[in-house]
Design a protein that fits this description.
Blueprint lengths: L1 E3 H25 L17 H28 L1 E2 L4 E2 H23 L3 E5 L5 E5 L4 H28 L1 E3 L1
Antiparallel strand pairs: 1-6, 2-3, 4-5
Helix pairs in contact: 1-2, 3-4
Length: 161
């Protein structure tokens, strides 16, 4: 079956949901409680069937993730001259840089406070916060552009699962 990367990721999520249901059912139906003298009620839980079901789902997930992994290392993201995998790493780096530059942009150029012993103390940035603010906007725009490019690559690249 041929699907785009995004569909494959959604299919993985669905398989993981199915596995969670199996595990939840197993955890809740794999034991029965009864009082002495009562007839034990049968359970619909089947150990072998549950294990086989989980094994089948895990195998499907592994295969799809493997194909996606190959796609992520070979599919080039338009406008960035890097693979999807590299772009995802770059996106994480940009987000960290954005957070740091945002903290720098929020600072006042110079602040003052009175110390515990009554002395006036000044703290001055050794950079221009306005420059950090401009860099913050630039990084944000790059993040947005990169996210759209990754999404586009994931929607337009097809894999066989």
């Amino acid at each position: 079956m041929k699907v785009c990367n995004s569909e494959a990721m959604k299919y993985i999520k669905e398989l993981e949901r199915q596995k969670d249901i199996l595990l939840y059912t197993e955890n809740n139906r794999s034991t029965v409680s009864y009082k002495e003298g009562e007839v034990k009620q049968p359970s619909k839980y089947d150990y072998e069937a549950t294990r086989k079901g989980i094994e089948k789902i895990d195998e499907q997930i592994r295969k799809i993730k493997h194909v996606l992994s190959i796609a992520n290392t070979t599919t080039i993201v338009d406008g960035f001259d890097m693979t999807i995998g590299e772009a995802l790493v770059y996106l994480a780096q940009l987000n960290l840089e954005y957070d740091q530059v945002s903290r720098l942009a929020e600072r006042e150029k110079i602040t003052r406070r009175i110390t515990a012993n009554g002395v006036l103390e000044y703290t001055e940035c050794v950079y221009e916060p306005e420059i950090a603010e401009e860099k913050q906007k630039e990084i944000y725009a790059r993040i947005a552009k990169l996210q759209v490019a990754i999404d586009r690559a994931n929607l337009t690249h097809f894999i066989e699962i």
